[in-house]
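It is worth pausing here to work through a concrete case rather than discussing structure prediction in the abstract. The textbook approach is simple: state the sequence, then state the predicted structure, then interpret. We follow exactly that order.
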Amino acid sequence: MMYLVGAGGFGRETLDALLATLGAPLDPTSGTVAFLDEGLSGQQVRGLPVHPMDHPARGDHVVVAIAAPAVRRRLAGVCSAAGLVPRTVVHPASVIGPETTLGQGCVVLALAHVSSSVTIGDHVQINYNVSIGHDCVLADFVTVLPGANVSGAVRLEEGATVGAGAVVLPGLTVGAGAMIGAGAVVTKDVAPGRTVKGVPAS
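Step two, the predicted structure:
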């Protein structure tokens, strides 16, 4: 059984990627895919049931499809404690270069291009139309939002977020928990926990 944690916008986008990997429409009555979401429990989303977090059995597969890194980290911990197995979902219309590794519980959406020799940690989200350059390192719980361009040899530390349409220039480090604003151009290292925006980002 496969569960998607979060039945909101990113949860539905993750479902799209999962369905694309299957190569065929999903029968909602098959009982093979469902959502977990306390707020929407008991409802249906895209024809699939939404269950509370305590519904799955140990050994079931799960992907945490929550955009906020802190919430994703917390729910990944809940799933791990319950004995659920994290699964990575990669849309077949994305590109993953050679010698690139992805951790557990990641999501890569359509038209993302991840170059060669990239190291990606656990529970990382790479949205649609994102480019990740060669030799980058994305630590656990990183989020790269739609249309962002992360140049080669960049390091994104744990829980960092790169906003939609932002650019991070080569060789820089974005610290843990930092936030890059939408459309920003990052020209120097970003300290942990800091929010930067603008061109150049500051």
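Step three, interpretation. The chain has a mean pLDDT of 96. The longest strand covers residues 2-5.
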